[in-house]
Write a structure and sequence with these properties.
Length: 377
């Protein structure tokens, strides 16, 4: 059985003020070509269909046309909500869509029932699990300790009654421990939302969304297919692709990728101002790429950004990398750290890790702990 694995379309996204909708329309057309060539038995979309929980009209229309095209081709399509999506909005009229072969995950309610496809090797059970958090799951497992995301996933998977004789596929949108992140993702720093790969025991393939860089986990059985487009300069070096998964007899899984060519690339351009200008003039259509320019000139160039925009109309940013900026950054960082108390520094780390500030009780605890440690010296 052949499946196309997609995720993190982020339809309607803006990057540095630039709407990506035309780029997304182009890449969807590229995906159509791959689907028509590969003729898969199903398409898996592992969350973050939209960039906002209340998506813009252009994004809704684009995804609507995508589903209509897939249904018209007779390809079963399996869609889950990611952390950027609203699972309630995504699942509206989902029962009606099932008659057209479009299956959309509903809000988690304590159990996940599979949709079963069949080929010459038997059944393939596809489980769809939208993005979930421990707080939303605990009430279904009152007899279990759900202290973190791994506990949560083990409880959820343990409730699925997996048929170990059949081939089983999970479509999920979570952060697996060890995955390499990009700047455009909303993932908690420090690992509080990490899930150990062992929590996905029993699945022949886990089609993941959430991480934007394509990568295999646990030997390839667990995979992030990545975004079809670059959504931050930290992804400039990524090779975006579609993942093709083939499940043969039980235990025999093949994974390969097919590259995607964007309407405009996203890349960094570095060098002296004069060289960057000259290079852009010789690039032809490539100068319309989304670029971030790093100038190496020791002296600032008057009106550099405006001049660069004439050559690179979709420039997303510019900065200098020279002796002055490197020294300024080093001194500034040292001064900033020296001016802050131990509690302030820890509070900043806590906020980055958890996406929220410490409570008064936590601040009180940390203050006492820091004072105890100082007194022990």
């Amino acid at each position: 059985m052949k499946l196309i694995h997609l995720s993190d379309l982020h339809l309607g996204k803006k990057v540095n003020g630039y709407s990506m909708i035309e780029d997304q329309k182009h890449i969807i057309n590229e995906i159509y070509k791959i689907i028509d060539s590969e003729k898969p038995d199903g398409v898996l979309i592992a969350g973050d269909v939209y960039d906002k929980s209340v998506p813009v009209l252009d994004a809704i229309e684009l995804f609507d046309s995508f589903l209509v095209e897939l249904a018209g081709r007779g390809i079963p399509t399996f869609v889950i909500a990611g952390n950027h999506d609203s699972v309630e909005r995504m699942s509206f009229a989902s029962r009606l869509m099932e008659s057209e072969g479009v299956f959309v995950s509903r809000t988690y309610s304590g159990h996940v029932d599979p949709i079963t496809l069949e080929d010459e090797n038997g059944d393939v059970n596809i489980y769809m699990l939208p993005f979930i958090k421990p707080a939303a799951v605990k009430r279904y497992f009152e007899d279990q300790e759900i202290g973190n995301y791994t506990d949560m996933m083990k409880a959820v998977v343990g409730e699925t009654d997996i048929d170990t004789d059949a081939r089983n596929v999970l479509v999920s949108h979570q952060f697996v421990t060890g995955a390499v992140r990009s700047d455009s993702e909303e993932v908690s720093v420090g690992g509080i939302d990490n899930i150990d790969a062992a929590a996905f025991e029993g699945f022949d393939y886990v089609a993941l969304g959430h991480i934007h860089g394509p990568q295999n986990m646990d030997g390839g059985r667990i995979r992030y297919c990545g975004t079809p487009l670059k959504y931050s300069m930290s992804e400039a070096g990524h090779e975006k692709s579609v993942t093709v998964v083939e499940l043969f007899a039980k235990g025999d899984v093949s994974i390969r990728t097919i590259g995607l060519t964007p309407l405009r690339d996203m890349r960094k351009v570095e060098g002296l101002f004069a060289d960057v200008i000259e290079a852009g003039r010789g690039e032809g259509e490539a100068c319309s790429d989304y670029v971030h320019v790093v100038l190496k000139d020791e002296d600032e160039v008057a009106g550099a950004y405006d001049q660069l925009r004439k050559i690179y109309p979709n420039i997303m940013g510019m900065n200098y990398d020279n002796t002055r900026t490197r020294n300024t950054e080093a001194v500034g960082l040292a001064q900033e750290v020296d001016k802050k108390s131990e509690l302030e520094l820890f509070a900043e780390l806590f906020t980055k890790q958890n996406g929220r500030d410490m409570s008064p009780e936590q601040e009180e605890y940390m203050t006492a702990l820091i004072n105890d440690l100082k007194g022990a010296k």
